[in-house]
């Protein structure tokens, strides 16, 4: 028994471009690109001409000389997103947002009061069309992975149910690019090996896939190709930033003192990140100067991390950049927040399996703290220095 198809993946079609066409009737039916230097979104009319997201604006014009390029209006997209998510949450309490324009909805418990998953999806699509003026595609399946593949296959403006007994028939003939997590590089690798469909990937032994694609990626994709994806809809997913800050009073602080405080803050939030099985990509340093003017500096990493050493190195670089200002104006508050936070398992494919010393140190420190409390362990930067302060009062923010 495989259970029932009760997971919906709802995904707005060509989201930014569709909002532009909704708000400007003269753009309807025309190839529209949102962005300028780079294509942030393309309408289906532009996609039909070969225009793709992340393509340069020049290339888009070459492909499609009559393309209409409009600047992004993030406020309008946020408002549309909020309206659509309100409809999601009105449909079921079990909503897991994936991005500004897509979410998983678990509707399994609603049959008696709201009907079958297919009926619920039809009503959801009608409401988004009527109340927000946008087309949304919905895939329905037993697992999140299959629901996401189904919504993509159904686009544009589609609804596709993958019944449990039809899963292989649906998935195996699809091109490997349809697997969630297969990017251009992995697809190219597979193509070179003559593997073009999900079925061909599924036929390999797991060990073969791991050897060809790397252990983590190979095992993950092979499991997906064989229809193993047990993850339930996760409504506890935290999209918000993780952060901590410390007010410093008005006395002067040496660079060394600031470094110790920064280390404590990063150590603590990195641990929270790992405890929540999360990784992040952006580190934000927040400062309040002696004159109480606030400033922030941020840096985004190329790949997500949960390593204290990496996060601390970025935070230190940001603080070093602010030192001239601090020297001149004084500093009364320092804080760090981590954003672009995602579940570790959702980005596993981009993470190298790198069991280096940093990983071992973080794991060991976390374990010791779990047993003996946070005060029992200090990082090297804090050792040999008597801070002379009471334990830091780190208040949460965001
Ligand atoms: Mg979308």
Mean of all residue-level pLDDT scores: 83
Question: Uncertain regions: pLDDT < 50 for 5+ in a row?
Answer: 348-357, 381-398
- Name the beta content range: 15-25%
Number of strands: 13
- What is the CATH homologous superfamily assignment of the largest domain? Reverse transcriptase/Diguanylate cyclase domain
InterPro entries: DNA/RNA_pol_sf (IPR043502), DNA_pol_Y-fam_lit_finger_sf (IPR036775), DNA_pol_Y-fam_little_finger (IPR017961), DNA_polymerase-Y (IPR050116), DNApol_IV (IPR022880), PolY_HhH_motif (IPR024728), Rev_trsase/Diguanyl_cyclase (IPR043128), UmuC (IPR001126)
EC number: 2.7.7.7
Binding site for Mg(2+): 11, 101
Domain UmuC: 7-183
Describe this structure in words.
This protein is α+β, with helices and mostly antiparallel strands. It has three domains: 1-164, Alpha-Beta Plaits (2-Layer Sandwich); 172-225, DNA polymerase, domain 1 (Orthogonal Bundle), CATH 1.10.150; 241-389, DNA polymerase, Y-family, little finger domain (Dna Ligase, domain 1, 2-Layer Sandwich), CATH 3.30.1490.100. It has 15 helices and 13 strands. The strands form three sheets. Strands 5-6-1-7-8 form a five-stranded mixed beta sheet. Strands 9, 10, 11, 12 and 13 form a five-stranded antiparallel beta sheet that branches. Strands 3-2-4 form a three-stranded mixed beta sheet. β10 (278-289) and β11 form a beta hairpin. The model is unreliable at 348-357 and 381-398 (pLDDT under 50). Magnesium ion binds next to β1.
């Amino acid at each position: 028994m495989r259970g029932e198809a009760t997971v919906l993946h709802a995904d707005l079609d060509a989201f930014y471009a569709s909002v532009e066409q909704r708000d400007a009737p003269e753009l309807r039916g025309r190839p529209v690109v949102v962005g300028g230097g780079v294509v942030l979104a393309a309408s289906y009319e532009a996609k039909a001409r070969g225009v793709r997201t992340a393509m340069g604006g020049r290339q888009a014009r070459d492909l499609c000389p009559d393309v209409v390029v409009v600047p992004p209006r993030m406020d309008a997209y946020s408002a549309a997103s909020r309206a659509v998510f309100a409809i999601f949450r009105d449909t079921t309490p079990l909503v897991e947002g994936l991005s500004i324009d897509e979410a998983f909805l678990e509707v399994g418990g609603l049959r008696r009061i709201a009907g079958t998953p297919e009926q619920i999806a039809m009503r959801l699509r009608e409401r988004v069309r009527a109340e927000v003026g946008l087309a949304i595609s919905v895939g329905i399946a037993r697992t999140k992975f299959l629901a996401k593949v189904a919504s993509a296959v159904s686009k544009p403006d589609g609804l596709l149910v993958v019944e449990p007994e039809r899963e292989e028939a649906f998935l195996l003939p699809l091109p490997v690019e349809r697997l969630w997590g297969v990017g251009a590089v992995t697809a190219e690798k597979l193509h070179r090996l003559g593997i073009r469909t999900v079925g061909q990937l599924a036929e390999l032994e797991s060990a073969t896939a791991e050897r060809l694609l790397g252990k983590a990626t190979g095992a993950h994709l092979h499991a997906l190709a064989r229809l193993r994806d047990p993850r339930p809809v996760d409504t506890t997913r935290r999209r918000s930033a993780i952060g901590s800050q410390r007010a410093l009073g008005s006395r002067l602080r040496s660079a060394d003192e600031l470094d110790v405080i920064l280390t404590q803050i990063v150590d603590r939030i990195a641990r929270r990140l790992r405890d929540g099985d999360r990784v992040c990509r952006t580190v934000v340093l927040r400062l309040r100067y002696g004159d109480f003017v606030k400033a922030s500096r941020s840096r985004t990493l190329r790949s997500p991390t949960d390593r204290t050493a990496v996060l601390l190195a970025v935070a230190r670089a940001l603080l070093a950049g602010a030192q001239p200002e601090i020297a001149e104006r004084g500093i009364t508050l320092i804080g760090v927040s981590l954003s672009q936070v995602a579940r570790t398992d959702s980005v596993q494919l981009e993470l190298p399996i790198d069991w280096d010393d940093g990983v071992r140190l973080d794991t060991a420190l976390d374990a010791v703290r779990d047993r003996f409390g946070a005060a029992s362990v200090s990082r090297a930067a804090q050792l040999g220095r008597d801070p002379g302060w009471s334990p830091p009062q780190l208040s949460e923010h965001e």
